[in-house]
Design goal:
Helix content: over 70%
Structural class: mainly alpha
Number of helices: 15
Shape: elongated
Largest sheet: none
Number of strands: 0
Strand content: under 5%
Order of helices and strands: HHHHHHHHHHHHHHH
Oligomer: single chain
């Protein structure tokens, strides 16, 4: 009986030693992965994070870092699995919940994304990235008032994010509050969000406010940045027509048609044909 007892304790000792060795090895592999990560060799980094996880499946930071690499590689379904594993080990981390939700968003599961982002915001109600993502989902699903509530919070947290003001402008535009939308778009543009889409949107708002000359100025700016978008010529034509420049409007509509814009109303097609 004494011999069996000694063998039993020897097995326990060896098991503990092996476990300690595995953990130390996993830690070494993790450090090596971080080294590759720091120099931008993400393929090798991911390989060593995986090796660390083979030895220690509870290594939450390895899941986090590998998941972050997978997001960079746009492998959102795989990244989500890593963040879910992290969350199972250490629940209720608002950043990890946000990352799970953004993976859901990019694999086109907006309902799951909203569910998880709400958990994140229940822990940290002023988490900027989570508010931005939720507001974007509300905007895409035309829940404009909910989107506005989130974007108002985000602009109170960070007043220099050009994209937020653009999204906020779209939300107010969606409920026909054109003055507020215009101010948001212009603020976004002033902060450097200077692409053809926002310039077209500013033109659209000026048109809705019956300021046709300013509308044309911004439609022209949008055309300068992207001369192949038929929508901008169509919109410019509408504004010109409102100002009485019928022939100029026809030329814009013809250009719009030639560029393949397919939503020209029949009555305008009859005019230009």
């Amino acid at each position: 009986m004494k011999i069996i007892k000694n063998v039993f304790f020897s097995i326990i000792f060896l098991t503990n030693c092996n476990l300690l060795f595995s953990q130390n090895t996993a830690k070494d592999l993790f450090k090596k992965a971080e080294m590759y990560d720091s120099i931008g060799n993400i393929e090798s980094a991911a390989e060593y994070y995986t090796k660390a996880l083979i030895l220690d499946s509870s290594y939450k930071n390895a899941y986090f870092n590998r998941g972050s690499i997978l997001i960079q590689e746009k492998q959102f379904a795989k990244a989500q699995k890593d963040f879910v594993c992290y969350n199972q080990i250490a629940p209720n981390d608002p950043e990890v919940l946000y990352l799970i939700s953004i993976c859901s968003y990019y694999i086109d599961d907006k309902q799951s994304a909203l569910k998880t982002i709400n958990k994140s915001l229940s822990i940290d109600s002023m988490y900027f990235d989570a508010l931005k993502l939720r507001g974007s989902i509300y905007l895409e699903t035309k829940n404009y008032k909910l989107a506005i509530a989130d974007f108002e919070k985000t602009t109170s947290i960070r007043s220099d994010d050009a994209e937020i003001f653009y999204l906020k402008g779209q939300s107010y535009d969606g409920i026909n509050e054109y003055e507020v939308a215009l101010n948001s778009y212009i603020k976004s543009n002033d902060l450097g969000y200077n692409n053809d889409q926002i310039l077209n949107n500013i033109g659209h708002v000026y048109f809705k406010l019956n300021n046709f000359s300013n509308a044309i100025i911004y439609f022209n700016k949008a055309i300068d940045l992207n001369p192949t978008n038929g929508l901008y010529y169509f919109n410019k034509g509408i504004a010109l027509n409102q100002m009485g420049f019928t022939e100029n409007a026809k030329e814009c509509w013809k250009k719009s048609k030639a560029l393949g814009y397919s939503e020209i109303p029949k009555e305008i097609l009859n005019v230009i044909n």
